[in-house]
Amino acid sequence: MRILAVDYGDARTGIAMSDLLCSIVGSTTVIHSRKQDKTLEEIVRLVKENGVGEIVVGLPKNMDGSEGARADLCREFADRLREATGLTVAMWDERRTTVEAHNILSQHNYHGKKRKNTVDAVAASLILEGYLGFRGR
């Protein structure tokens, strides 16, 4: 089984998938869509094609730990994923993942459009790495 991580966004949604042993990030992609239904449909396709057994969705909390409107939107999307796939969908605190993703891409000379098209996948892989580490403990 694989675990799929989602960094849900308005225009781009980052996706990271574990290897079969659920020990490392195996692949990443970005879904480019402003339509939640299309994003959901694409994730369901990836789940079916790749033998995904669990999903983790990034939960954007404020730095003080509180949750705002964006967190509510991600929880609603997670509920839709749960209904559409029948899988367990966990929520994972994603504070600072986008900042870390930008730092990683800067260190590797990804700038401009190249960075914009990659940052969400890197953020999803950071969510997945954190979640896999937590599961391994």
- Percentage of helical residues? 40-55%
* Biggest sheet statistics: 5 strands, mixed
CATH class identity: Alpha Beta
Can you count the helices?
Answer: 5
Poorly predicted runs are: none
Question: Largest beta sheet: what is the strand line-up?
Answer: 3-2-1-4-5
Give the N-terminus to C-terminus distance in angstroms.
19 Å
CATH homology superfamily: YqgF/RNase H-like domain
Structural class category: alpha/beta
CATH topology: Nucleotidyltransferase, domain 5
- Element-by-element helix/strand order: EEEHEHEHHH
DSSP E strands, number? 5
User: What proportion of the residues form beta strands (DSSP E)?
Assistant: 25-35%
Shape: globular
**Overall pLDDT level:** 90
List keywords for this structure.
5 helices; alpha/beta; five-stranded mixed β-sheet; 5 strands; 137 residues; globular; Nucleotidyltransferase, domain 5; 48% helix
